[in-house]
């Protein structure tokens, strides 16, 4: 799995999984475009990983805004001339509350990032890859996109939507030699899981973490680099006949 001279966009690049994807790719000589709403955080990733202006590009973007998404794609083309891989990864967990208590504002926020962000990314990256007749896209869904979880209606349903978008995009792109897949992480040791633990068990986050940990047949949380390894495989030529697939990374937590 070598990515020398490949151009790969990673959204949510400052997050736990996003940063490890960037690390994995640059270690294999890729040129990376780091996209995140938190510009200081992606600059910190750039510094931590010793990225240069030659092999990286930083773009601040709110992926729920179509013009922001078009901008990071345009900037990528302007600097590097092509897009070989796209990790459509930015996402938020949303509130933990009963479905009937969800507000329109909360709905718009979660769906704006988790669904519109994925859709807009596909909308602007796919035409580039179709013209090239090559490319690989990995959308980050979740095991929440395969099951239901009490108090997590927005996160669950938005990740189900990602699964649907992935299937449509894979079918529309296949004739152009462009592959589209999802990864579906389970409980992964990231800041997002810290937030989920605190949300589902206010004042008892450590107990929630222990419960999640105990529920996993492998008896541990996954690490972000374990997700990054699967994403890197899907981006690589070694997955050249893999498309419209969903890869669950959950320590056998859910048999779905």
UniProtKB/TrEMBL annotation:
<dbReference type="Pfam" id="PF13561">
    <property type="entry name" value="adh_short_C2"/>
</dbReference>
<dbReference type="GO" id="GO:0016491">
    <property type="term" value="F:oxidoreductase activity"/>
</dbReference>
<dbReference type="InterPro" id="IPR002347">
    <property type="entry name" value="SDR_fam"/>
</dbReference>
<dbReference type="InterPro" id="IPR020904">
    <property type="entry name" value="Sc_DH/Rdtase_CS"/>
</dbReference>
<dbReference type="InterPro" id="IPR036291">
    <property type="entry name" value="NAD(P)-bd_dom_sf"/>
</dbReference>
<dbReference type="GO" id="GO:0008206">
    <property type="term" value="P:bile acid metabolic process"/>
</dbReference>
<comment type="similarity">
    <text>Belongs to the short-chain dehydrogenases/reductases (SDR) family.</text>
</comment>
<keyword id="KW-0560">Oxidoreductase</keyword>
<protein>
    <submittedName>
        <fullName>Levodione reductase</fullName>
        <ecNumber>1.1.1.-</ecNumber>
    </submittedName>
</protein>
């Amino acid at each position: 799995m070598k990515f020398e001279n490949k151009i790969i966009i990673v959204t949510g690049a400052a997050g736990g999984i996003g940063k490890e994807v960037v690390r994995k790719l640059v270690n294999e000589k890729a040129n990376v475009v780091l996209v995140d709403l938190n510009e200081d955080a992606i600059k910190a990733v750039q510094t931590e990983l010793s990225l240069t202006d030659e092999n990286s590009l930083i773009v601040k973007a709110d992926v729920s805004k179509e013009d922001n998404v078009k901008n990071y794609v345009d900037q990528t083309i302007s600097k590097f001339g092509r897009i070989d891989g796209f990790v459509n990864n930015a996402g938020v967990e949303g509130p933990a509350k009963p479905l009937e208590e969800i507000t329109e504002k909360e709905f718009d926020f979660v769906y704006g990032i988790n669904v519109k962000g994925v859709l807009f990314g596909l909308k602007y990256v796919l035409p580039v890859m179709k013209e090239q007749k090559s490319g690989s896209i990995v959308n980050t869904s979740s095991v929440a996109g395969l099951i239901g979880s009490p108090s997590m209606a927005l996160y669950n349903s938005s990740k189900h939507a990602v699964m649907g978008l992935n299937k449509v995009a894979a079918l529309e792109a296949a004739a152009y030699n462009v592959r589209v897949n999802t990864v579906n992480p389970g409980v992964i040791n990231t800041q997002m899981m810290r937030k989920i633990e605190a949300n589902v068990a206010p004042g008892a986050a450590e107990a929630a973490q222990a419960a999640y940990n105990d529920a996993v047949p492998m008896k541990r949380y996954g690490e972000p680099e374990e997700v990054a390894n699967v994403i890197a495989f899907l981006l690589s030529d070694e997955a050249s006949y893999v498309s419209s697939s969903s890869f669950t990374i959950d320590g056998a937590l859910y048999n779905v």
